[in-house]
Amino acid sequence: MAEKTRTPIGKIVGASLIGTTIEWYDFFLYGSAAALVFPALFFPKSDPLTGTLLAFLTYAVGFVARPLGALVFGHYGDRLGRKKLLVLSLLLMGGATFLIGCLPTHAAIGAAAPLLLTALRLVQGFALGGEWGGAVLIVSEHGDAGRRGFWASWPQAGAPGGNLLATAVLALLAAVQSDEAFTSWGWRVPFLLSGVLVLVGLWIRLSISESPVFQQAVAHAGPKKTMPIVDVFRHHWRDVLTAIGARFAENVSYYVITAFVLVYATEAAELEKGFVLNAVLIGSAVHFVSIPMWGALSDRLGRRPVYLLGAAGVGLWAFAFFPLIDTGNFAAITLAVTVGLVLHGAMYGPQAAFFSELFATRMRYSGVSIGAQLASIVAGGLAPLIAVALLQSYGSALPVMLYVAGAAVLTLVTVFAAKETRGRDLATLSDAPRSPGAAGAPGTAAEPASRG
User: How many C-beta atoms lie closer than 10 Å to residue 315's C-beta?
Assistant: First the structure.
C-alpha cells in the first residue's frame, strides 16, 4: 500500500526545495550571464544593446522549449509517477549547465559558439518545463488540504533560492576578480559548479517515495488508456487558460525585476554590475522567506485573494521601480527590487497549490505543466527581450512600466474570474467525465472541504 512507503512531508518538501533550487540556479545563471558576459563572448560584433538583445534571444529559446518539456514530462509523469521524472529533469538540467561552462567562445570557433549555446539552452528549457510540475505536485499530493498552500509553496521558494545562489556566486566572483579575469574564465566557474550540486540533488531525490495520491489513483483505475494531454484539453481547457492568465503577471514581473534590471541598471543608469547584483541578492533573500508566508496566508484567506493582491501590487509598483533604480542609490535600488519580489511572492506562493487543485490526478502533471509553461513563452521568455527592445526604441523606462502594468491587468481579470480552490481533496478529483457542474467533475473539481 502507498501508506507503508509514505515519506514524511518534511523530507518531501526538503527534497523538492533542494532540487528546484539547483534547477533554478542553472536556469537563472544563464539569464545573469546573458545580461553580463554573453554579449561580448558570443555576439562580439554587435553594439552593446544589440548584443544583449541577441543574448536574451538565446535566453528566450529556453522558454520556447519549456512547453515541449511539459508535454513529455507531463505525459510520462501521469503514467509512470512523479519521482522518476524529477530525477531525469535534474540530470538533464545539470548536464546542460555544466557543458555551457565548457563551451568555446566566438573568438575560438566563430558562429558555432552561439549555436552550441542555443542548443544547450534548449535542453535547459526542456528540463525545467518538466521539473516544475513534478516538484510542486509531489509536495501537494503528500500534504493535507488544510496546509497545502504552505507546504506546496516551498518548491516555489526554489526559484529565489536558485536566483540567490546564482547571484551570490556571480557577486563573489565579481568582487574577487577583475572584469578581465571574469570575462576570460571566471564566468565558467558557476556553470561548472552545477555538476557538484546535481549530485547532491540526485542523492536526496532518490530517497523519497512516490506520491500517495498518484499511487492510489493507479491502484484504483489501473493503466491509463488515453493520453493525459488529450484529457486535459478535453476536460480542463478552462483550467489551462486560468493557469496561463494567472502566470502572465507573475512571469513578466519576475524577469523584469531580476534579469532586465541588470541591463537597465548597467546600460541606462550606468551603474556597476556588482552594485546591482548585491541589490538582487538581498531582494532574493527576502523573496525566499516571503513565499511560504504568502502560501500559508492562502490557506487562511484562499488562493484568489492573495494572488489578486500580488498582481495588483506588481502592476502599481512598476511605476516606482524604475525611478528608484534611476537614483543610483543602493538603498533605493534594494528597496525597488525587494518590494517588487515580495509582491511577486504573493502570486508565486499560492500558485503551486492553486494550480494543483485545478486538475484531476491522472492528468494533473500534464495540466499543471502545460498551463504554466505555455505562459512562460509569451510572458517570462519574452519579458527581458521585449523590455530591452522597448528601452532601445524609446530610450525610456515608461514603456516597460506600462508593459508590466498591462500584464498585471490580464492576470487580475483571469484570477478574478476563476473559482476558489482552497481545501479541495486532490484524491477525490475524478478523471472520468461527469455531468456538468457535478462535484469532482473535471474542470469543476470537488468543492472545498469544510475547514471547521
Answer: 24
pLDDT tens-digit profile of 89-117?
Answer: 888 888 888 998 999 988 888 878 888 88
How far is 24 from 247, CA to CA, in rounded Å?
Answer: 17
CA 51 to chain centre: 25
- For 45-52, the CB contacts below 8 A with 24+ separation are 48/267, 49/267, 49/388, 49/391, 49/392, 50/392, 52/263, 52/267, 52/388
On whether the CB atoms of residues 350 and 307 are closer than 8 A, the answer is yes
Are 132 and 67 contacting, i.e. CB atoms less than 8 angstroms apart? no
User: Which residues, 6+ apart, have CB-to-CB distance to 406 below 8 Å?
Assistant: none
Hunting for cell 532574493 — which residue is that?
284
Cα dihedral 93, 97, 102, 108, rounded to 10, equals 110
- CA separation for the pair 260, 245 (Å, rounded): 22
- Can you read off the three cell numbers belonging to residue 43? 555576439
Q: Are 167 and 280 in contact (CB under 8 A)?
A: yes
Rounded to two decimals, what is the model's pTM? 0.82
d(CA 404, CA 264): 15
Using the structure block, give the residue that is written with the C-alpha cell 526554489.
158
Length of the chain: 452
Nearest to residue 333, comparing CAs of 264, 254, 285, 408? 264
DSSP letter string over 107-173?
Answer: HHHTTHHHHHHHHHHHHHHHHHHHHHHHHHHHHHTTS-GGGHHHHHHHHHTHHHHHHHHHHHHHHHH
Q: Of 160, 68, 86, which is closest to residue 123 (Cα–Cα)?
A: 68
Question: What's the rounded Cα separation, in Å, for the pair 235 and 30?
Answer: 37
Amino acid occupying residue 32 = S
Residue 243 confidence (pLDDT): 93
Are 54 and 157 a contacting pair, CB within 8 Å?
no
* Closest of 17, 161, 53, 37 to residue 100, by C-alpha: 37
User: Smallest Cα–Cα separation from 368: which of 426, 321, 289, 288?
Assistant: 426
In whole angstroms, give the CA distance from residue 368 to residue 359: 7
The percentage of the chain sitting over the pLDDT mark of 70, rounded to a whole number, equals 90
Count of other CB atoms within 10 angstroms of residue 55? 29
- Is 344 within 8 Å of 280 (Cβ atoms)? no
Question: Of all helices (H) and strands (E), which one includes residue 49?
Answer: helix 48-80
**In terms of C-beta density within 10 A (0-12 exposed, 13-18 middle, 19 or more buried), how is residue 107 classed?**
exposed
- Range ranked top by mean pLDDT from 142-156, 219-233, 258-272: 142-156
CA distance 168 to 173: 9
